[in-house]
Write a structure and sequence with these properties.
The protein contains six helices and two strands; from the N terminus they run αααββααα. By secondary structure, it is mainly alpha-helical. The protein folds into two domains: 65 residues, Winged helix-like DNA-binding domain superfamily/Winged helix DNA-binding domain (Arc Repressor Mutant, subunit A); 48 residues, Diphtheria Toxin Repressor, domain 2, CATH 1.10.60. Strands 1-2 form a two-stranded antiparallel sheet.
């Protein structure tokens, strides 16, 4: 599921930025071969997250768009929390990419709440 989330989020990002997403865009983004991306996209299509046609851009289904938005939201919460506790931008970006897939909904909600309190100055400097 982690790979599916990463890929649908990437497809959504590329579509949002450029208007279309192709296998080559994902290959460059993830630093993997065209064949690897094609296999993953095939699995995403079977799962109902994307629609593909030969020599056409990859399209997200409604289900794929929802998954991408959920993944992006989880990523933003984790990233925001890490930044709020003083983690550097670079490290927060790297760490949040892995954590977002493995954190429970309960923990995610607590991270979001704590981040808001930290931003409002409600906790002082000691976390």
């Amino acid at each position: 599921m982690e790979t599916a989330e990463d890929y649908v989020e990437a497809v959504a990002d590329v579509i949002d930025q450029t208007g279309a997403c192709r296998v080559t865009d994902l290959s460059r983004r993830f630093g993997v071969s065209h064949v690897t991306v094609s296999r993953i996209v095939g699995r995403l299509e079977k799962a109902g997250y994307v629609v593909t046609q030969p020599r056409r851009p990859i399209e997200l289904t409604a289900s794929g768009r929802r998954l991408a938005e959920q993944s992006r939201h989880r990523h933003e919460i984790v990233y925001g929390f890490l930044r709020a506790i003083g983690v550097s931008e670079r490290t927060a970006a790297i760490d949040s990419e892995g954590i977002e897939h493995h954190v429970s909904g309960e923990t995610l909600e607590r991270l979001r709440s704590l981040t808001e309190r930290l931003a409002d100055g409600g906790m002082g400097s000691g976390v």
